[in-house]
Design brief:
By secondary structure, the protein is an alpha+beta fold. The protein has 14 helices and eight strands. The chain has an eight-stranded antiparallel sheet with strand order 4-3-2-1-5-6-7-8. β5 and β6 (317-322) form a beta hairpin.
Length: 460
């Protein structure tokens, strides 16, 4: 009787161990292939993100001669500065004006000329034009474009979004693989093992740093996703419809019925992008001058560094916006171009709960919320991500058999189905993950399973 009970216990333990190993292999397999496919993209995001963190310092060095002017006692009015630009570039449309925010800083006038946009730098003390930059050729603009859409437009945006979503899968599956099965074990879990051979060290140099930066990596992914073209737009629309975007109470008078959103006419903070653009109605009056708009901005105590988007249509409005280092200083203001009346004044305090959370996440993601310390922490995260991506590739290459990919074999039993179901849930939350799963399934069903050599190579 006793012997039968012992055998039953052994059998139960054996089944439990088999299930556990099957689950481990199934998760490892997903982690393996996701890491292998998205390694180049995650490396690009880490490198470009690390560079973009230091945009203020880099641009200060690159464009020092355009940014700085000699201090003088007199100032030229904003409208006179813009007039000087019009005379210099008679065929250009003036789009924006950014006032100088200190006595040693130039003003900036944004123009459109022959299908290109330029920034013209003007000395606010004498109205002289210092120089111009083609916006598309500015280094940090290119890095931002590469970081956000691989310089490939909508297709690039979707690929970056896909990589970011799969990064979440990698973090979750990686955490499971890292999770210590022996609770009293520290080496190999919290610190690498340097005396256990090269293979063990290679594994630890991937898994241990990944544990330490996984929370920061997850934060960067989640705060970056609101900018994405598909998931981000859907999320923004849901937030607005749910009333956690912007409230109707910000309007002076009735809310506009316009279908034009603020992001269509100006670069504004995330929380104001879906704000409807009101119309200037009193068109029988003379337009308010740019000088008056700057005066109104001062009266409204908008944070320094703001940009004025100049109306291009008779019913258009002046839009003042500022991407301040701290989210709490963000502002978006619409002014009637004929009366200067404030049609909307939208600040951080007006954001809904989600709007505030996203705004803070964005300034932390960009490294501006807490100054240099914020930049430094962001840089450590980027270096860490690059490090675990490279160490993961090295680990795979070191272990890879000569004749196949070295992927963990598909486990027997239900483990693979359970993990696949969990991944499908990710696919529902993040549509591009779901789409990629469908593509993988089609590839597996119509190609991999029908070519024995390929099936052996992938260990499918």
């Amino acid at each position: 009787m006793m012997q039968e009970k012992q055998e039953e216990t052994k059998s139960t333990n054996k089944k439990s161990t088999a299930r556990s190993q099957g689950l481990y292999k199934a998760i490892w397999r997903w982690h393996f292939y996701a890491g292998l496919v998205f390694t180049p993209l995650l490396l690009i995001l880490a490198v470009t993100g690390g560079m973009y963190l230091f945009k203020p310092q880099i641009e200060e060095r690159l464009y020092h001669d355009l940014y700085h002017v000699q201090v003088q006692s007199q100032y030229v009015s904003p409208s006179a500065q813009v007039q000087a630009v019009k005379e210099k570039y008679p065929g250009a449309d003036v789009l924006t004006y950014k006032p100088s925010d200190r006595s040693t800083r130039s003003s900036e006038v944004g123009i459109s000329l022959k299908d290109h946009t330029y920034t013209i730098f003007v000395n606010p003390h004498n109205g002289h034009i210092i120089g111009k930059l083609d916006d598309s050729s500015r280094l940090m603009n290119q890095i931002e474009e590469f970081h956000g859409e691989l310089m490939a437009g909508t297709a690039g945006d979707r690929i970056v979004e896909l990589a970011a979503c799969w990064a979440i899968v990698l973090i979750v599956t990686g955490a499971f693989l890292w999770w210590p099965r022996k609770k009293d074990k520290i080496k190999g879990v919290l610190i690498p093992r340097f005396s256990k051979g090269k293979n063990v060290l290679a594994r630890d140099l991937h898994a241990v740093p990944a544990f330490w930066i996984s929370a920061g990596m997850l934060f960067l992914v989640l705060t970056g996703l609101p900018w994405s073209g598909l998931w981000g737009n859907a999320f923004q629309q849901i937030a607005t419809n749910a009333g956690v975007g912007y409230p109707p109470s910000i309007w002076v008078g009735s809310a506009p019925t316009s279908t034009v959103q603020t992001k269509d006419v100006a670069d504004v903070p995330w929380g104001a992008e879906t704000l409807e653009v009101p119309s200037s109605t009193a068109q029988q009056y003379t337009k308010v001058s740019l000088d008056d708009i700057v005066t109104i901005a001062k009266e409204r105590h908008i944070h320094d560094g703001y940009t004025i988007s100049i109306p291009q249509e008779p019913q258009g409005v002046y839009t003042l916006s500022v991407f301040s280092p701290k989210a709490q200083d963000e502002a978006t203001i619409h002014l009637d171009q004929y009366t200067g009346a404030v049609l909307a004044d939208y600040r951080y305090g007006n954001y809904g709960f989600m709007g505030k959370l996203i705004a803070l996440g964005i300034t932390l993601h960009k490294g501006t919320q807490f100054g240099f310390m914020n930049q430094l922490i962001g840089l450590i995260m980027c270096i860490g991500i690059a490090g675990i991506v490279i160490s993961g590739s090295f680990l795979w290459w070191r272990r890879k058999p000569a004749k196949n990919m070295g992927a963990p074999k598909v486990p027997e039993g239900n483990a693979m189905r359970i993990v696949t179901c969990i991944i499908v849930v990710f696919g529902i939350l993040f549509p591009l993950v779901g789409l990629s799963l469908v593509m993988v399934w089609l590839l597996d069903f119509f190609v991999i399973k029908r070519i024995p050599a390929l099936k052996r190579f992938l260990n499918a």
